[in-house]
Amino acid sequence: MLNHHPSIEMLTDYAAGSLALAYSLSVSTHLEHCSECQQHVRKLEVLGANLFTQTAPENQSLSFLKQSFFEKLTEEEQDRTSETLAENKQKSVKNWFDDYKIPASLRQFVPNNYDELSWMKLSPSVKIATLCDEDGIQVSLTRIKAGAHIPTHTHAGEEITLVLEGAFSDEKGVYGRGDFVSRNASHKHKPMVTKDAECICLTVLDAPIEFTGWLTRFFNPIMRRYHPQTQ
Amino acid sequence: MERAKQTQPDDQLVQDMFAVAEHRDQVALTRLFDHYVPKIRAFCLAAQPGANLMADDIAQEVMIRIWRKAHTYKPEAASLNTWVFTLARNARIDYFRKNSRHQTNIDPDYLFQSIVDENADPFKDAQHQRDQERIKDGLDKLPQDQKQVLYKVYLEGKTHKEAAEELSLPLGTIKSRVRLALHKLTIYIKR
Ligand SMILES: [Zn+2]
Q1: pTM for this model (two decimals)
Q2: How many CB pairs under 8 A join A and B?
Q3: Which DSSP string do the residues of A91-144 spell out, in sequence order?
Q4: Looking at the predicted complex, does its ipTM rise above 0.95?
Q5: Which domain holds residue A61?
């Protein structure tokens, strides 16, 4: 049983599809570990479906649209290759569980293993790899060696940390695989990775240029010189 | 042994889904088109009033996905309405992404995959059936102010924060309205 979950507001925005994709990515990754939140999302989707089916019916004639749709469908049917491609994509998502620990939601950035990313070494014990950006919200992976301390610091923006592998702790508790930790400026931390294994986290930062996240703030001088690259 | 539930018009649509999946039946697909396309268009227009071309594009995209993915639909795991809603939601996100309303290289296809497939437990299915009925009945009884916020979040695609700004209400008020609504619908009890 996990102890740290996204807020119900965030789950609702996620199920509704109104949540920024960078945050949706962290929620989706959490869901792969958390049946409790999965249940919530399922129900929230049922709610969405009910609102969706209550939308006012239009009086507009759709015969033109219908005709153009069936023409498009015929084209699509002839173009078998695109369908095969789409199915392959689905397949790779479904099979991840058997072979890899990479969450399905992250496989668009990490197809095989974490080592294939271009990690940037920030210190002997910390490495970081940027996955993507959305409207200035930055998503990255942080990899910290077992037992490593992270200096005390505060930060400005909001930050989400999702534990993918290993565990870390701070004054408030221990966070393990699947835990979803949301922090804002009011928090002050002394996070430390547990001694038994390295820790890999997914982090979503809403103020990436200054790297104000609680985990990465102290790397600012280095990070500013680093140009995030997309894979 | 005809039950009231079996006479619902949605049953015809579920049959049509099977016809599409198994026989590539375009007549059945036409019935699904007639039923869902007006809803998908209205769903898109709620987020972007007047954007008829966008609504047409997304509606067509959803119908293509229905055609291609019909064989993956499992009625015991989700109602057809829920399944189509998730397709429409994802297609709308994808459209906004590709047309740079949101600058991003995150592919939403990866973000909502696992949920619909996640089920093989008859006990959970029965539970899910009850949840569905409770949500459907409860929604009609919600006070207007709670419904309004749900409408903004789900149909207009606004976050809680954006809904608060638009209604000139504190974020806390929006949050508590949603929480009250979710509580009544027994979606969210405590945490
Ligand atoms: Zn959870």
Answers
A1: 0.84
A2: 197
A3: HHHHTHHHH--S-GGGTTT-SS-GGGS--EEEETTEEEEEEEEETTEEEEEEEE
A4: no
A5: 8-96
